[in-house]
What does this fold into?
Amino acid sequence: MTAEPGLFEIMYSLRSMRRLKPDPVPDELVWKLLDAAIRAPSGGNTQPWRFLVIRDADTKRFIQERYRRGWDRYVQANLKAAAEAAVPMTEAESAARAKMIGAATHLADHLHEAPVLLLVCMQPRKMDLPPDPESQPPSPAALYASIFPAVQNILLACRAHGLGATLTTLHLLYERTIKTKLGIPDEIDTVALIPIGWPAGKFGPTTRAPVETLTYWDRWGAIRRR
Amino acid sequence: MTAEPGLFEIMYSLRSMRRLKPDPVPDELVWKLLDAAIRAPSGGNTQPWRFLVIRDADTKRFIQERYRRGWDRYVQANLKAAAEAAVPMTEAESAARAKMIGAATHLADHLHEAPVLLLVCMQPRKMDLPPDPESQPPSPAALYASIFPAVQNILLACRAHGLGATLTTLHLLYERTIKTKLGIPDEIDTVALIPIGWPAGKFGPTTRAPVETLTYWDRWGAIRRR
It folds into this structure.
């Protein structure tokens, strides 16, 4: 790896790495990931991010037990429904999906074995705006716009340093319990749980629908040829 | 600019570019930004992103009028309160803040002059999970985790191509009106509005609190020396 890996090379080969080796991740590398995170923008430069780096075995296990329950419920409810309702998939798409589900189940079973669980937290800003009759209450999107760009920077920095990572949110189904366990104050939200470690698999291209089918010009529904 | 700019160089010099030149941004470059966006992860690889590229003058003006009203309300309510309540700032921090407010006011006044307004939209996924007594309803964070990483990829790709951009969400205060104007269906959320154009200013380092003060290890409140 060169000292300065290319942006697009990193971005285009950034897969979720759900199979990780148990080898430790040094503190110095964790600091580098967080240094990258905080370069992201935030509304009014409020920098609402807070980070909890979890390496303690019991704590990881506590989180894994809940993550695993969340995953089971998720699989039962959504993946089957999605598979049944979805437009027919090609053989390649179907194989990619099966592979992803297998890897995600592996992650749910082995989450506590990841050398680092990075819990990304947020101190949300209170908004108390003067009224305007045409207006509506602020969407939660305005809050999360100030934290998930930092999360993406972490994933890109992991990839650049050769570390595997996956953006997960299933812990949110048990957020209250997990916050109590970790001593996290009420006013802090936990928004993402990122297992990080040296990847067992390889980085490479991802499966995505072409953007031409998802983009409109000037008005919803107006497509344009590329 | 080289063909493959370095990830960390891009990430660390990515400022919000709120002063833009009126020179047009070619379609081909817009496609490249969106190609980068969709490399981001999304829950279950559902790829909920949809994009609306706005160049029509009347539509841009319609959005700018509402954005400007949102900005006025935001300044009234929040920035003054923040300045009064905040811990004392150094002269440099105070100057940086004043500069940002000046640039943000410029953006609110000139939003419609940006060659492209990119409205990032999302088709949210319905979650209907089997019950679990320890569990709680899914946080909205789980939804936005599947869209703002793509937004950060857009910002990074803009920077890599020499384009200026700013992640904004003030349009959300008038989302209903704007959706009606643009013909956006009810079930689609608009999550970010990114004015894009050739920057009048220069890219460079950003002002951030050091990560050491924002990071805990294993338990909330437990700091570690770097």
User: Anything to note?
Assistant: The longest strand of chain A covers residues 189-197.
